[in-house]
Amino acid sequence: MTPDEPNAQEDLVAVVAMAGRFPGAQDLESFWENLLAGRETVRVLTDRSDPDHPEYVPAYGVLDGAGDFDPAFFGLSPNDALITDPQQRLLLECAYEAMERAGHGSDDRPVTGVFVGASGNGYAETVRARIDELPFVDEWRLRQATAPDFLSTRIAYHLNLTGPALTVQTACSTSLVAVHVAVQALLNGECDMALAGGASVLPHLPRMRYTPGGIVAADGHCRTFDADSSGTVGASAVGLVVLRPLLDALEDGDHVHAVIRGSAVNNDGRQKIGFTAPSVTGQAEVVRAAHLVAGVDAGDIGYVEAHGTATALGDPIEVAALTKAFRESTDRRGYCRIGSVKSNIGHADSAAGVVGLIKTVLAVEHGVIPASLHFQRPNPAIAFASSPFVVNAQTAPWEASGPRIAGVSALGVGGTNAHVVVEQAPDRQAPRTAAGPQLLVVSGRTARAADEAAIRLGDHLDARPDTRLADAAWTLRSGRTHHAHRRFVVARDGAGAAAALRAATGTAGSPADSGTELVLLFAGQGGQHVGMAAELYEGEPEFRRYLDEVAEAAAAPLGMDLREVLCPDTDAERATAAERLGTIAVSQPAVFAVQYATARLMESWGLRPSAVTGHSLGAYAAACVAGVFAPGDAARLVVERGRLLGTVPAGAMAAVRLPEEELLPLLPPEVTVGAVNGPGQCTVTGPAGAVARFAEELTGRGFEARLLRIATAGHSPLVEPIIDEFADFVGRLHRERPVLPVLSDTTGDWASPDQVRSVDYWVRHLRRPVRFGEVLSALFGTPDRILVDVGPGRTLSTLARQHPGYDAKQSVVHLTPHPAEEASGAATLLSGVGALWARGAAVDFDALHGGRPRRRVVLPTYPFERRTYLVPPVLPATPRPAAAGGDTLLADTVPGYPPVEPPEAAGTGRTAGTGPAAGQERSAVLAAVLTSFGQALGFDDVEPADSLFDLGGDSLTATKLASWAASAFSVNVTTADILRCQSAAALAAWLEERGAATSTSGKALTS
Prior knowledge:
Blueprint: E1 13-21, H1 28-37, E2 43-44, E3 59-60, E4 68-69, H2 78-83, H3 86-102, E5 112-118, H4 123-128, H5 139-146, H6 151-159, E6 165-167, H7 174-187, E7 193-200, E8 237-245, H8 246-251, E9 258-267, H9 280-294, E10 303-305, H10 314-326, E11 336-339, H11 342-345, H12 352-366, E12 368-369, E13 389-391, E14 396-397, E15 405-411, E16 416-424, E17 438-444, H13 447-463, H14 469-478, E18 485-491, H15 494-503, E19 517-522, H16 534-539, H17 541-558, H18 563-566, H19 571-581, H20 584-604, E20 611-614, H21 618-625, H22 631-645, E21 651-656, H23 660-663, E22 672-678, E23 681-687, H24 688-700, E24 705-707, H25 723-731, E25 742-743, E26 750-751, H26 753-756, H27 759-767, H28 772-779, E27 785-791, H29 795-802, E28 811-814, H30 825-838, H31 845-849, E29 867-868, H32 888-893, H33 924-937, H34 955-969, H35 975-981, H36 984-993
Parallel strand pairs: 5-6, 5-7, 10-11, 10-15, 11-13, 19-20, 19-27, 20-25, 27-28
Antiparallel strand pairs: 1-8, 1-9, 2-3, 4-29, 7-8, 9-16, 12-14, 15-16, 17-18, 21-23, 21-24, 22-23, 25-26
Helix pairs in contact: 3-6, 7-12, 9-10, 13-15, 17-20, 17-22, 20-21, 20-22, 22-25, 25-27, 33-34, 33-36, 34-35
C-alpha cells in the first residue's frame, strides 16, 4: 500500500517542518542550495595546524554565529545568555523557528513533546574557570545552564510545550534516535506533535591534534566511500524536525514534507571487536527491522543516506550491513543510490543523524538527490559491485516508478544504531479558495523586529509568486505568536502584498495593548450607496445571516425586500436601487441593516464592543447592539421612523463650519441647529427652501456651508406633528436594559439603563439636536479606547479626527469605504480589523477564517535580534581578575555591551528614567540594590521601578539577592521578600524600614 491509501496512513508520521543551522548555511533554504550546488562548507583552519604533523590539514565545519542569541526574546537576562551553553540557546531558537515553519507557532497548538540531545562541548568548564568574574552565578545555576539534563525541558518551558520532554544521549546517533523516540511517542498517543533532533556546537575550537591512522581525515575532506578516504572531519550543526501523525497533519492542512514510514533502534551489544567498533550484525538488524516496521521492500528504496564517516573501518562495515539487510527482500544490484551529507559539512556528532534526515526529506520532497562529494573511485574494501548500491557522485533527478522512498542511518559510538524509512508525501489537491482580499499580519517583540518581519515576508512573496496568498494569510494569523509591535496589510496578490509590506515598515505606532476597548460609532443617514453590502453579503455567511434577519423583519412594513437595493445584480436593478435609496423611507432601514449586520459580523470575529453610540439614525443600531431592542423590533422601528419622517414637509440639512455660539445669531426663524459635531462643526435643519437659501447666504458671506444628501429636516420643529404617533409605536415595543454602556448623542453623556429604554428618551432623540461633539469629548479621555466607525462611509471617523480632543495616541478606525471611493468593502473591513489587531484587539482569527479550506505554508520565521554571548576560555598565561562588581565579564566579552538602545526598544518592558526615584538623589541603600540587580542580571542601567522578572530574573536570582541583601545590610531577608518587592525601589524601601543603614553601600558581591 502507498500513503495515498487511507488504511495505510494510520501508523505513518508526517514531517511537517524542519529547521537548523549548518556550516555555511544559517537556514534550511541555504543548506539545500549548498547541497544542490555540490558545495563543501568545511573550513580549513590554518591557525590550528599540528607542528608535529605538517601533512595534516586542520579543517572543521564551522557554524558561524554559534555564540549569537536574542535573550530578551525568551525573557532571559544577559547574564543568563552568557552562561547558557550555546547548544541549548541554538536549539531553543531553532525550536521556535521549527514551530513557526510548521504553522503551529502560537500557544494554540496540539500537545507537543520534545526529544533532543546534544554533544559535550566543554562550555561548562569554560564558564566554571571564570566563575569568580560572574557575580551571583553558583555551581547549581551553572549546571542548570549547561547540563544536558535541561536540554529538552528548557525548550518545553520557553515554548510552553506540555508533552513529554526527554533528553536523548547516544553519541553520534543521538538525534536520529531522538526522532525514533518521538515517532513512538506519537504512535503511542503520548503527544500529538513532536519536536525531535539535536545539536553539536563547539563555541571555541580547540587546537587540533592529529593521530595518523585515527578517525580524523589527514587532508581536511570527508571522502565517504572513496578509495582515498582517510577519516572524517568534525562539524557543528543544529537540526530539528516537527512530526505529527500523518492523518492529523492532512486533516489539519499542514504542509507535509515527507512521511516517516517506520524506524528502528538497537545496540550492537558485544558482537564486535571493541566498544567503539561498529558491527555488521547490529547494523544489519536495525535496518531490516526498520524495513519491516515500514512495510517496504528494499527493492523499492531508491536512496540511502548513510552514516558515512569515511573511516577505514566504518564505511566497509556500514555498506556490508546495508547489503545484508537489503538481501532479505531483494537481489537487485546497483539500483539504489547512496551518499552522505558529511562529505558536504563534516561529521556533526550528535546532530549528524537529524542533519542526514533533513537532507533526505528535502531530496524525497523535491525529487533530487544531491551529490555525495569527493567520490572518485570506490574504496576497494567495499563490495559495491555485488551490492544494491551505487554512490551518488553527481546531483541527479530522482526517477521512481512509485513513491520515492529512502533510508537514513545514524550509528553511535558505543553501538546504538538507528535507521529511519522516509517516503514521499501523498498527493493532495490544493483546496479551492475564493479570490478576494487577504489580511496578512506580522509582529515583533520590538518595532525593529516587526519591520524586519514585514520585509522578509515581502521578499519571500516576491521570490515565490506562486504562494497562495489565502494560505499565507491563514498561516500568519493562526500559526504565529502575535507580539506587541504589529504590522498588517490587505492585498489580493503576492506582488501587491510585498509592496504593501515594505511600505508598512518604519510606521511604528504604539505597541498593542491587551486592555484595548472598542467603542462602536454608528453613523446617521447620508453615507448610503448602491451595493454597499453586496460584497460582504456574498462572501461572509455571518453578515448574510444578520442582514437577512433585518431584511425579513422589515419586508412587511416596508413593502419590499431591502436586499433588492443592497445587493442588486443588473444595471437596471442598480438604477432602481439608487432611486429607492434616495428616499428616506428606504435609506434609513437600509443603513440600519448594514450597520447591524456589520457589528454582528465583527462580534463573531471576537471584536466585541465595550460601549456603543450613534449619530442620529445610528443610535438605533447602537441600541440594538446593546440589547435595548430586539433586531426585528429595531428594524420595524426604523422603518416606521423613516415612514413618519417622509410625511413631514420637505426638509433639508446643511453642514456649516461655524461654532454653535456664532451660528445661533445668524439663523433665520425657520432654521434651527440639528447637530453640533464639534467646535466649528454644525448642521442646520429646517424647510428645504429655507435651508438652501441660508446655505447660499453663508457661502456668499465667506462661510463654508454645504447641503447634505438628506431630504428631511430631522431634529427640527418640523418633526413635532409626528412625535405622538412615533411615541406610541416605541411604547408598544419590548425594551430591555442595555447590556453595554450607551453614550447618548442627545445629551453627549452616558445614558442610564432606565433612560435608554424609556419612550421619552427616543422622543427627545427624534426632536432635539445631535450633540456628537460632546460624545467625542466624552470618549477622548481614555487613550486605550478605540473608536470604530461602523459606517456607512467615514463621516464619524472624519469628525473624530477633526475634533480638538483628538491626538495621535487615540485610535480611530473605519470599517467601510467612502461612497465616492472605488474600494472593496471587504478589503476596507479587513483593513479595519487589521488596525484593531495592531492596537491590541483580540481578533478570533479562526472565526475570521470561517472554516474555509486552507493549507499551512512555509513562511519566513521570526527575525531574532542577536548579540554574541560567549565566555572566552582562560588562556594559560592570562591572569583572572576577581569580580570587582558591575558587568566586567559581559563588558569584556559581549560586543557593544552595554546596550545602546533604550530598554523599551530592547523589548524588556522597561522605560529608562522612570520610577519613584527617577531624577531624585538616591539613597546609599537604593544605590547598592540597583548595583546588585545589575550584576545579577547583566544590566548596567537598571532603574528603581524595573521589575526583577521583567528583566529576566527568576526565583534563583531572587535567592541570591536575598542572601546578598542579608549579608550587606544585616537584615533578615528571605527569597519571598525579594519576590514580594520585585523592584529595586521597593526592596530598598523595605530594607530601610527594617533599619538598613542608609550610609551602607552594600558589601562586595560574590558568587
